[in-house]
Amino acid sequence: MKEKLFIFIRHISRFGIISGVAIYFKTYFLTASDSHISLKNLSFPILLRKKTSDVKIFNQVFLNREYDYKLTIEPKFIIDCGANIGLASLFFKSKYPNATICAIEPETSNYKALVSNTNRHDSITTIQSGIWNKNVLLKVEDIWNFGKWGFVCSETDVEAENTTKAISISEIMKRFNREEIDILKMDIEGAELEVFSSNYEEWLPKTKVIMIELHDAYRKGCSKAFFTALVKYDFSVYSCGENMVCIRNQ
Question: Which CATH fold would you assign to the domain 65-248?
Answer without folding.
Answer: Rossmann fold (3.40.50)
